[in-house]
Amino acid sequence: DVIGVDPAAASLAVAQRKPGSAAVRWVHGDATALPPLDADLAVLTGNAAQVFVDDRDFAAMLRGVRAALAPGGRLVFEVRDPDRRAWEAWTPQRTRTARIVPGEGAVESWCELLHVDGDADDRAVTFRWHFRFSRDGAHLTSDSTLRFRTRAQVEAALASEGFEVL
Fold this sequence. Notes:
Number of strands: 8
Number of helices: 4
């Protein structure tokens, strides 16, 4: 059984149109609203673990996932290393792409770094994605902030919520 959880209704709508989506139980919400599922595996995709800028929100998400897992269940996710300073490459010149999207035509996209808060060990990075649609000329934007925690910070948060880091 596969359950997909996302707080963004628009993201769920896109996912539900993909091949194989009928085999997934879709939940609009976040990990804090999950019932005990006895899940063997929970996966946070993309930057999902980094959208929790506030430590309390990050801990609440970890508690929600922990409660949904079966004994011995695993949580798998990725985070970016703040020492690599990936955000320095988030410029229109380095991120600009154009592709053909079925049903939409040509879509151009690029990223714009808005600002970086914090110090070398803990940063919150705010950026804006731009999307320009050639079909109707629409220009949409999406702002986000990601928290770049150190490995030690991530491991301490996991341990405080009962996870063992492997």
